[in-house]
């Protein structure tokens, strides 16, 4: 981050500002154009290495645009213009330097000896200095004429309010967890005298607050920008200034992925390197890679490599192709699961247009659109068509989700682009269609606000505007979506809290399993036991499942081989016919508890949740103790079903009952009218 310097303006800054202004100035009809600006051809801008010079160039050009009518009137009223010694091609440079001259209160500029002079700049500067008294008098007459206390009163009302809102906008910064932790930043800020407050509306003085949507985003008062940039936290890239809208985008991507999985992310546009670094920091705890498209030159790749290295990023891979040039089945991207698409847009919801242009590589035409308060229909159609093509190209990739984010206030670039893409769809044999889902923001303080199909923030005094949409493939949960994906998405929305709480209560109910013991006559002696109410509720649901299993068994032939699922540690013993014959007709599952005391396991061993599965219970062979001699008693085959066993028991009911067996207690069966138990 670069600390903004003051009262420094080099010749190269004037040249670049003039070239920017030449491309965005207001063109008047020829019959009313008293000041001529030459042709519309703009030569390439000079390369400016430091951020301050780039920012100052755009600020001068934007100021010349806002005060173009006033500056032209000053030149005409002072009779300085027209001047035959100044060609029309230098008129843009004349207005830019005139604005800077009046901003310095018509004082001479300090020129550094190390600065390389540019002839055109020195010529215009000498010309203005010769007539600066006339120019100052003309400005005074204009202020008197329009009753303006300062030149800001010459601005349109909409522009004036926009600038007031932008100047008071809180500073937004995200914590770089690649180089520090949230707790360390909080302690460092506290040692510097900062105090945490509840909301953005409460920040004033040395205070800050946490964002309601993103857990690693902080807000500071705008008046502390210079002091904040001088702190070690910003100098070491532990805190990074960036608009909140981009943090919302990367957090929406992170919410769609598992924290510790190796799912890759595709960033479709280079945009701001801060957005890519933030995405890298959120994916640092996994083995995934963040692919960035559109890094055209090796010089740009080397520059970005240095920036990412300074920020601690190690999981970023740069691709030189544009996103639309990459094939959907590119083997490099086979593991990609989410695409982050932040296309070029009108950007009118961004409070600071110069920040947007510098950080997002935006078009300087945004300055003119902002001054006019709208975007031309032709330009809007071109942008919307390009955004639609990029979104539809993203839908061709075998990814699970796409996050679409803009800084536009126009539905043509937001909702309509997404809806058209979903309407047209992408046809493919192995590609399932996409559908619109609500964006997931885990740290959202108001989950109800995240249930809409789109997430929108209108420009205000506390935040820039933002549009966010998430589309995901319609997947077959049994094939394409893993359990981890489902649980992580549910946990992000807070849907597992009540389930986890219920599981802790159920852990208090210990499960007592039936264990058989070998006796002299190899019989099971059932004991009476109490059936807990919670087990009764679960048996109601189990009865329906078992009845469906039985209906399927009836359709299958008895001689068909069948795989059985056996219980753990089964004890295969014979069951007396007396006990079987008196069981209810529709009883499918009965839990029998013995009175004999068994050593209970400590509760600490039962903390782990057990996943419930539907199993098919196969009873052991049943040997009747009467009706046949013991030696030639026919045994039931091992694969006999429960239904066949019941039919056999019915045929034995008419026979003479066996002698009473001592210490046999009838099992207690919980009946339910709905389930038939």
TrEMBL record:
Positions that bind S-adenosyl-L-methionine: 322
Residues annotated as domain SAM-dependent MTase RsmB/NOP-type: 161-474
Gene name of the record: NSUN7
One annotated GO biological process: methylation
Segments passing through the bilayer: none
Family: Belongs to the class I-like SAM-binding methyltransferase superfamily. RsmB/NOP family.
GO molecular function list: methyltransferase activity; RNA binding
Pfam family, one: NSUN5_fdxn-like
Protein name listed in UniProt: NOP2/Sun RNA methyltransferase family member 7
Keywords: Methyltransferase, RNA-binding, S-adenosyl-L-methionine, Transferase
Superkingdom, natural source: Eukaryota
Region annotation (Disordered) ranges: 502-523, 546-565, 644-677
């Amino acid at each position: 981050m670069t600390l903004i310097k003051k009262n420094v303006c080099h010749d190269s800054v004037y040249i670049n500002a003039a070239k920017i202004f030449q491309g965005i100035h207001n063109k008047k009809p020829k019959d009313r154009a008293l000041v001529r600006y030459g042709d519309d051809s703009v030569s390439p801008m000079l390369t400016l290495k430091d951020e301050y010079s780039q920012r100052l160039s755009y600020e001068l050009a934007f100021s010349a645009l806002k005060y173009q009518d006033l500056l032209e009137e000053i030149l005409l009223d002072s009779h300085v213009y027209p001047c035959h010694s100044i060609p029309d091609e230098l008129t843009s440079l004349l207005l830019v330097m005139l604005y800077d001259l009046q901003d310095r209160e018509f004082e001479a500029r300090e020129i550094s000896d190390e600065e390389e002079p540019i002839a055109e700049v020195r010529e215009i500067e000498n010309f203005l200095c010769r007539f600066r008294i006339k120019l100052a008098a003309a400005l005074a007459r204009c202020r008197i004429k329009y009753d303006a206390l300062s030149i800001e009163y010459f601005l349109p009302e909409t522009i004036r309010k926009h600038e007031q809102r932008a100047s008071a906008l809180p500073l937004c910064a995200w914590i770089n967890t690649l180089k520090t932790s949230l707790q360390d930043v909080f302690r460092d800020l506290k040692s510097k005298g900062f105090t945490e407050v509840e909301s953005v509306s409460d920040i004033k003085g040395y205070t800050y607050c946490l964002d309601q949507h993103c857990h690693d985003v902080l807000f500071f008062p705008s008046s502390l920008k210079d002091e904040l940039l001088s702190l070690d936290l910003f100098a070491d890239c532990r805190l990074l200034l960036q608009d909140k809208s981009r943090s919302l985008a990367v957090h929406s991507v992170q919410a769609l992925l598992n924290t510790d999985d190796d799912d890759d992310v595709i960033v479709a546009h280079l945009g701001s390197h801060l957005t890519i670094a933030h995405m890298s920091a959120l994916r640092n705890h996994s083995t995934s890679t963040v692919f960035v498209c559109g890094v055209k030159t090796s010089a740009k790749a080397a520059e970005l490599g240095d920036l990412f290295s300074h920020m601690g990023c190690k999981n970023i891979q740069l691709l030189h192709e544009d996103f639309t040039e990459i094939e959907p089945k590119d083997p490099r991207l086979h593991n990609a699961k989410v695409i982050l698409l932040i296309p070029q847009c009108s950007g009118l919801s961004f409070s600071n247009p110069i920040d947007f242009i510098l950080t997002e590589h935006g078009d300087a035409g945004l300055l003119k659109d902002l001054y006019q308060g709208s975007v031309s229909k032709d330009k809007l159609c071109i942008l919307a068509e390009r955004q639609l093509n990029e979104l539809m190209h993203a839908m061709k990739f075998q990814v699970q989700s796409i996050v679409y984010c803009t800084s536009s206030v126009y539905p043509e670039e937001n909702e309509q682009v997404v809806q058209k893409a979903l309407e047209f769809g992408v046809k493919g044999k192995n590609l399932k269609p996409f559908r619109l889902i609500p964006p997931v923001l885990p740290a959202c303080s108001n989950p109800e606000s995240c249930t809409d199909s789109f997430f929108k923030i209108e420009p205000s005094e506390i935040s820039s505007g933002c549009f966010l949409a998430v589309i995901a493939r319609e997947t077959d949960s049994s094939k394409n979506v893993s359990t981890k994906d489902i649980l992580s998405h549910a946990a992000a929305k807070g849907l597992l809290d009540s389930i986890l709480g219920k599981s802790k209560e159920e852990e208090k109910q210990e499960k007592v399993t039936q264990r058989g013991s070998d006796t002299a006559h190899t019989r099971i002696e059932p004991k009476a036991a109490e059936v807990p109410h919670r087990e009764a509720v679960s048996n109601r649901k189990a009865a329906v499942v078992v009845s469906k299993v039985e209906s399927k068994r009836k359709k299958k032939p008895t001689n068909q081989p069948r795989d059985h699922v056996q219980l753990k540690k089964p004890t295969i013993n014979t069951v007396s016919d007396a006990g079987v014959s008196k069981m209810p007709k529709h009883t499918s599952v009965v839990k029998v508890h013995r009175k004999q005391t068994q050593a209970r396991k400590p509760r600490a061993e039962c903390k782990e949740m057990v996943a419930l599965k539907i199993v098919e219970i196969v009873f052991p062979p049943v040997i009747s103790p009467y009706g046949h001699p013991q030696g030639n008693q026919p045994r039931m085959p091992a694969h006999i079903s429960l239904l066949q066993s019941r039919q056999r028991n019915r045929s034995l009911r008419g026979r003479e009952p066996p002698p009473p067996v001592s210490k046999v207690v009838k099992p207690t069966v919980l009946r339910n009218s709905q389930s038939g138990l």
